[in-house]
Amino acid sequence: MPAALISSVLLLIVLARQRRDAVFFLALTSFVLMIAALAITLTVNVPIDNDISRWTPSSLPADWTATRDRWEAYHTIRTFASVAALGCAVASALFCVPRRVASQTL
Fold it and tell me: Per-domain residue ranges for the chain?
């Protein structure tokens, strides 16, 4: 994840300097979605994982299903954010190909 975020920042700098607005905003959206997925992981899922790791069958809390459901909900949101980030990154790469290069390959 750190490598993806660092490379995204570098890509955003290059795209901003080239004035590639549409591609820049797709890459920026991808970056923001990756940050959101990371934030959800660090602020919700990991703390829940840490709590669950201390549970035993005899110390299982009465509301353990609520904790499980919260983890699953945030995991779903995180997954959709990650998939959307990948989609935006791929779209920005596809739209970044110069027209003359794209027409020569067809």
Answer: 2-98
pLDDT digits (tens, 9 = 90+) for 66-86: 999 999 999 999 999 999 999
For the purposes of burial, counting CB atoms within 10 Å of the CB of 92, is it exposed (0-12), middle (13-18) or buried (19 or more)?
buried
Stated pTM of the model = 0.81
DSSP string of 32-80? HHHHHHHHHIIIIIHHHHHHHHT--TTT--TTHHHHHHHHHHHHHHHHH
List CB contacts of 55: < 8 A, sequence separation 6 or more: 61, 64
> Rounded to an integer, what distance in angstroms lies between the CA atom of residue 18 and that of residue 10?
13
Q: What is the pLDDT of residues 39-59, one digit of tens each?
A: 999 999 999 999 999 999 888
Task: Give the whole-angstrom CA distance, residue 15 versus residue 8.
Answer: 10
